[in-house]
Amino acid sequence: MGSEAAMVLEAADFAARKHKGQRRKDPEGTPFINHPIGVARILAHEAGVTDVVVLQAALLHDTVEDTDATFAEIAERFGEEVRGVVEEVTDDKRLPKMERKRLQVERAAGSSRRAKLVRLADKLHNLRDLSRRAPEGWSPERVQEYFRWAAQVVAGLRGTSPPLEAALQRLFEERGLAPGGPGPGP
Questions:
Q1: Is-catalytic flag, 65?
Q2: Phi-psi bin for 136: left (phi > 0), alpha (psi -120 to 50), beta?
Q3: Angle between helix 162-174 and 140-155 (nearest 10)
Q4: Taking a C-beta distance cutoff of 8 angstroms, is the pair 186, 145 a contact?
Q5: 40 bridge partner residues
Q6: Quick one: which of 43, 79, 133, 176 could link to 49 by a disulfide (CB 3.0–4.6 Å)?
Q7: One of 10, 46, 51, 65 is an active-site residue; which one?
C-alpha cells in the first residue's frame, strides 16, 4: 500500500466513504466522519501514537458497528492486526444497549494495548463533545450518566496512556467523578 502516511489516508478514505451521509447527534448535525478523524488526531497529537495499526483502527473503529463494513473487509483491506483492534472496540449492535455498555466496562481491562488506546481516545473525543454540547434531547442527567459510565470503562484502561488518562481525569473531575467511581451507566 506504500508509505505509512498512505496507509493511514487509505483508512480515512474508507471510513469517509462508509460513513457518508451519517451525522453526529449534536444540534449542528456534525458529519460523523469528524469523530473517527478526531479520535485518530487525539492519538497522534496528544498521546504521541505513531503505530499505523492503532491510527488505522481509530479511523475505522465505528465502521463495522455503524455501517455495512465487515470484519472480513477490514482484514482484506487493512490486514489482520487492524481487523483485530477494530473487532476489540466494536460493540455488537444485536445486543441491548445496556448489555453493550456493561460489556465495555467488563472487557476494558483485558483488551490489548492497541484497543485500549483507541478506546481511551474514543471516550475522550465523545466526552469533550458532550461537554461542549449535548445531543438533541439529552438532559443534563443523561449526560452525567454517560460520564459515569465512561469513567467505569476508563478505570479498566488505566496504565495505557498517561496523557490521555490525565485529560480524561480532568473531564471527570469537572463533573465530580473519578474513573471507576460509583453510579450506574446510561
A1: yes
A2: beta
A3: 150
A4: yes
A5: none
A6: 43
A7: 65
Predicted model pTM: 0.93
Which of 10, 26, 51, 66 is the catalytic position? 66
- Choose among 32, 182, 179: nearest CA to 119: 179
Q: Output the nine-digit C-alpha cell for 156.
A: 479498566
Reduce the secondary structure of the chain to three states and give it as a string. Answer: CCCHHHHHHHHHHHHHHHCCCCECCCCCCCECCHHHHHHHHHHHHHCCCCCHHHHHHHHHCCHHHHCCCCHHHHHHHHCHHHHHHHHHHCCCCCCCHHHHHHHHHHHCCCCCHHHHHHHHHHHHHHHHHHHHCCCCCCCHHHHHHHHHHHHHHHHCCCCCCHHHHHHHHHHHHHCCCCCCCCCCCC
CA distance 131 to 70: 32
Query: What residues are paired with 31 via a beta bridge?
Result: 23
